[in-house]
């Protein structure tokens, strides 16, 4: 193994180590992670919330034992592979060890450390964006059709993981038209690649058609409830914060794409970032949707930095560019990651508020960052549901019905009684076991609906009690209540079917 390979291996090893030490053991999994894990039990070509790739990875995690180590391994792996692709991009641009080192450092000590702590489609999404840019660069350098075909494969993988990659194409196409690379649209291999990509994503498109395009409902709901709260200035501000340590390289890369003679054939990348950010701003997209844009520009900046550092001030410039991202990481270590207890966060709220970390998707500030609050209270909920479930002692006739997918997924993950919780929320609406006759219901409801639930549901059961609730005051689900309804005097299954039809009818 040569020197460069040893240094790359050291970066990747450090990446894995950091991903595991940046999460305090007091936190549970994130609410989204439970949903993704449950999808492995219901494999399909699509879901209400995401395309199918995450379910395939969850299936592998299940084969490996479904432990937290493996759940966290895969986002860390995708982050490490992103670093590897940036490394290969720098090599493709003829970068030397200086460029490789500063580029890898900029990618390693960035927002990816935060992103890669969670098992969500986002980590693979960033990898696919970075890989597609790399493969397109390979095509520009060689004009060999195989690189376009690989672009199609990576696009399809990205699309089947998260539809967000369509934004990359929406920015890349006009950028190509604006540059001499527009001749690409006259080449047969582009359309062969497009057909290949279409064939690979076709099963998901067919699933969307057969299920009345739930992605449209999901996007409309997202726009109505969350994206409406997106501030475009905050979106742009956070783009800087995401790669703050590598921002000098990104800016150098953009400058070089415009002015550096050696990069004259790559100007398409300059226009691509402008068009893509413009599309994101137009749709009021969430800030983290654009994270996949930046790793390739770190590569361009690192190679350009290699050249300007040779002109003069080499002994000063190189250490500075290496130290900046590390110094920012050290400064952010105590605030940007779920490695501090909720008590610590409450005692240092002003620091979190100053960085906008207490602002949730509802546009309001809360006690903890939303992602952190979404990682609390779940094991407590499952343990308490298990106790209520055991007390009823009629598993075949007991329905565990939750308000949202986080509650249902967490119960299914942590339960030691084999509980199979469901909800009318997200993908769970398709996973009800209606071949059973239910006479008892364990109902999990948000705190604000406690009184209404007892008043509306208790008349239909012989006994109705509030069994317990989540007591972790730092959890987003604090106060979520567990009801026990036994001895139904109505046809529970009929009510379930009616509710399912109503929810689906509203889509």
Characterize the structure shown:
This protein has 507 residues and is mainly alpha-helical. The protein has three domains: 3-332, no CATH class; 342-373, no CATH class; 378-505, no CATH class. It has 23 helices and five strands. The chain has a five-stranded mixed sheet with strand order 2-1-3-5-4, sandwiched between helices. β1, α21 (405-414) and β2 (422-423) form a beta-alpha-beta unit. α5 (97-108) packs antiparallel against α15 (295-309). The radius of gyration is 25 Å and the shape is globular. The mean pLDDT is 91.
Quaternary structure: single chain
Structural class: mainly alpha
Please outline the major beta sheet. 5 strands, mixed
Overall radius of gyration? 25 Å
Separate helix tally: 23
Mean pLDDT over the residues: 91
Low-pLDDT regions: none
């Amino acid at each position: 193994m040569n020197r460069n390979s040893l240094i790359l291996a050291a970066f990747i090893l450090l990446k894995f180590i950091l991903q595991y030490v940046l999460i305090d053991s007091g936190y549970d999994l994130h609410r989204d992670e439970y949903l993704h894990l449950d999808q492995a039990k219901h494999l399909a070509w699509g879901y209400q919330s995401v395309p199918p790739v995450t379910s395939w990875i969850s299936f592998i995690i299940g084969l490996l034992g479904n432990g937290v180590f493996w759940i966290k391994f895969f986002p860390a792996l995708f982050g490490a592979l992103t670093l590897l692709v940036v490394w290969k991009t720098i090599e493709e641009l003829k970068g030397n060890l200086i460029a490789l080192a500063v580029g890898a450092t900029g990618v390693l000590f960035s927002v990816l450390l935060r992103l890669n702590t969670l098992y969500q489609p986002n980590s693979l999404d960033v990898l696919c964006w970075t890989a597609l840019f790399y493969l397109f660069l390979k095509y520009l350098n060689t004009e060999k059709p195989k690189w376009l075909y690989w672009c199609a494969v990576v696009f399809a993988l990205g699309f089947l993981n998260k539809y967000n990659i369509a934004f990359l194409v929406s920015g890349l196409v006009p950028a190509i038209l604006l540059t001499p690379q527009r001749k690409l649209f006259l080449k047969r291999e582009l359309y062969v690649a497009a057909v290949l990509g279409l064939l690979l994503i076709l099963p998901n498109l067919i699933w969307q058609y057969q299920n009345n395009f739930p992605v449209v409902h999901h996007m409309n709901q997202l726009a109505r409830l969350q994206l409406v709260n997106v501030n475009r200035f905050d979106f742009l501000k956070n783009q800087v914060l995401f790669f703050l340590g590598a921002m000098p390289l990104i800016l150098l890369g953009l400058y070089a794409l415009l002015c550096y003679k050696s990069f004259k054939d790559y100007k398409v990348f300059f226009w691509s970032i402008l068009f893509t950010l413009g599309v994101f701003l137009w749709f009021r997209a969430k800030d983290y949707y654009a994270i996949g844009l930046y790793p390739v520009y770190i590569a361009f900046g690192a190679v350009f930095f290699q050249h300007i550092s040779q002109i003069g001030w080499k002994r000063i410039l190189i250490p500075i560019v290496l130290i900046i991202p590390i110094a920012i990481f050290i400064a952010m270590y105590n605030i940007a990651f779920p490695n501090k207890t909720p008590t610590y966060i409450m005692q240092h709220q002003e620091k979190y508020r100053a960085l906008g970390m207490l602002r949730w998707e509802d546009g309001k500030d809360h006690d903890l960052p939303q992602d952190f609050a979404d990682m609390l209270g779940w094991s407590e909920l499952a343990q308490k549901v298990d106790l209520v479930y055991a007390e009823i002692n009629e598993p075949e006739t007991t329905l565990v019905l939750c308000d949202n997918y986080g509650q249902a997924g967490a119960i299914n993950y942590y339960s030691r009684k084999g509980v199979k919780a469901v909800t009318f929320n997200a993908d769970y609406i398709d996973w009800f076991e209606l071949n059973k006759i239910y006479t008892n219901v364990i109902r999990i409801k948000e705190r604000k609906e406690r009184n209404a639930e007892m008043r509306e549901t208790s008349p239909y059961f012989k006994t109705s009690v509030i069994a317990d609730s989540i007591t972790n005051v730092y959890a987003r689900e604090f106060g979520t209540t567990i009801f026990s309804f036994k001895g139904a005097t109505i046809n529970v299954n009929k009510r379930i079917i009616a509710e399912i039809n109503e929810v689906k009818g509203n889509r």
